[in-house]
Amino acid sequence: MRPVAVVAFTHSELDGQSVWDDVELTQKVCSAVRKQVGLTQNDIGFTVSGSSDFLSGRPFSFVSALDGVGAFPPIQESHVEMDGAFALYEAWVRLQHGDIDTALVYAFGQASLGDLNRVLGLQMDPYWAAPLGLDEEAVAGLQAAAQGLSGAVQRVPLSDGAAAIILAAGDRALELNEQPAWIRGIEHRMDCGELSQRDLTQLNSAHACAKALDLSQYRIEQAELHFNFEQQRDLLQESLQLSGDIPINVGASSQVDTYMVSGLLRIGEAAQAVMNGSASTTLAHASAGPAMQQNLLCVLGAKP
Amino acid sequence: MSRPCAVIGVGQTRYAAKRRDKSLAGLVREAADRAMRDAGLEWGQIDAVVLGKAPDFFEGIMMPEHHLASALGATGKPILRVHTAGSVGGSTAVVASHLIQSGVHERVLCLAFEVQSCSNAMWALSPTYPFQPPTVAGAGGYFAPLIRAYIRRSNAPPEIGWKVVVKDRRNALKNPLAHIQSEPTLEQCAEAPILWDPINYLETCPSSDGACAMVLSSEAAAKEAPTKPAFVQGTSLRSEPIFFPGRDQVTPQAGRDCAADVYRQAQISDPLNELDMAELYVPFSWFEPMWLENLGFAEPGEGWRMVERGDTDFGGVLPTNVSGGVLSSNPIGASGMIRFAEAALQVRGLAGAHQVEAVRRAVGHAYGGGSQFFAMWVVGDTPMAS
């Protein structure tokens, strides 16, 4: 594959409820991340974002966010109704074509606009699961029970926010950043849609990503993992067979869950550690769906 | 570095106002199964899935790809979920083609759906924004002023809008999957009640339930396909903001740029003569002449003359929307992919009763938002020479 690297990363303030709207958040992170590497929007080959309409409670929330990008003259652009980490995957694929060398990836999410716990209940199967009133905590509780844990589940604190990353391919990456964070491998997988058909103590899709990446070949020095409930940390470490002495979630933004942005933030933090020289190989992880149904892994390194 | 991508399977559901016979998963599976059968593949041969649909609000299910994973055959596989407003069906196909062209995967299933009977699309398409007056009533409310502007600019006579309706609905009679199966007369079109001045009831697309799927593959995998593949000769995505001073919303630059990009890749300099048919996203009849101009098939202000001459009729210079188009079937999230899939079917010679003779190259087009998101592809019977 063509070598692609993270060359710039930024995020908004992540201290709970934001005073900014989606467009303002987008504008802040997009202009800041471009400024880091001295690019304007006209220099960007492909732009792709991640967000969810259900957070802002209206259709097409990504449409107005485009105002924050500065999309005229018209841009090559796409959007996934997914965490920004999956948008980054789409950009990585697009950069493989070889006709463009840079991509801007951003994500925004303001969970404070509604009751996220109840909103996430609307992800469940509409015939068999949603009518039971299963919300996010209930599903996490089922998973904790399957793990043999008792007591209330503990959610990672939520924050509103946005993040942006610039990817560059080949020599262009080295022109933009003396030490880019090269994407050594990136994989994502989905588990089955029926909660009752899953062994909730096994994160099969996370394990499959690790296997596809041959994760054990890397000497991971830092892992930025995305889980919404504390008990999922252990599940994830087991599924990925991560050694217990690897520091987890060192990054400042990894202390909170910025819903729809967290995965992109984890990639950003893992990349930052490589770009600032504090680590030579890092791992980033993103998850989505009930009880971490969908997982993405990205290995970043100082060399392509 | 980019390698050829082929369309080796197409599957569509029957489109209807309400598909009460199928669950959401069942409807999606109907299209997916048909595409898989067309491609002659088993589920294990699919490497990844790309799902597209317009706002989750239409069905009231957030990120439905999670509960639909099994129905989509995506368990244990990578799946991406695209949402680019009305253009999403087209964008989904383009994202899937990237997975092949980049060399990441060999065979990808892409699918787009909408079950509009779950909600009222008109009000779902009337988003309100904080601190802004709610001035838009549905997509028609948004697009009516653009159509008025087009008519004023071009001095087109009113029957142009009616002629497009009669043509598309007549074409739909040859497409057993089409939602609307009745051909109005020009007189009926003239007398239809106005919904959003100047758009009348018959000039408006329906709200449909349905899904469309395609299997895309590498050139090597296409050689093993049981039927003739169509090759992707160019793809393009373009977006611009919805509101800014001086924006030409009648013929947006993003649409012009998108067309220029896709023609450049397909080495097309004269689209009207080098393309054998077109599937354009025409949800309100007047958008046919508007897009004919925007996409370079006619000079500015002249698109309506093509309609008047019958150039876009079955058997015309550029048969357009021979499937019946969005005006005859409109599951919004899938409507763009249907255009892309119908273009591929024509190249493959598998369009049945609405097959145009000797199609070597065809264009599929989708747009969305406030005429601001564009997705296109050109498919042909050979891959582009690199």
Polypeptide structure, described:
- The complex is a heterodimer of chains A (304) and B (386).
- Chain A is built from ten helices and nine strands.
- In chain A, β8 and β9 form a beta hairpin.
- With 304 residues, chain A is α/β, with parallel strands linked by helices.
- In chain A, α4 (84-95) crosses α10.
- Chain B has 386 residues and is an alpha/beta fold.
- Chain B has one domain: Peroxisomal Thiolase, Chain A, domain 1 (3-Layer(aba) Sandwich).
- Chain B has helices at 24-39, 88-101, 121-124, 138-154, 159-172, 186-191, 219-223, 253-265, 271-274, 287-294, 303-309, 332-348; strands at residues 5-12, 48-52, 79-82, 107-115, 194-196, 199-200, 209-218, 230-239, 277-279, 361-368, 373-380.
- In chain B, the strands form two sheets. Chain B has a nine-stranded mixed beta sheet with strand order 3-2-4-7-1-8-11-10-9. In chain B, strands 5-6 form a two-stranded antiparallel sheet.
- In chain B, α2 (88-101) packs across α12 and α10 (287-294) crosses α11.
Can you describe this structure in just a few lines?
The complex is a heterodimer of chains A (304) and B (386). Chain A is an alpha/beta fold and 304 residues long.
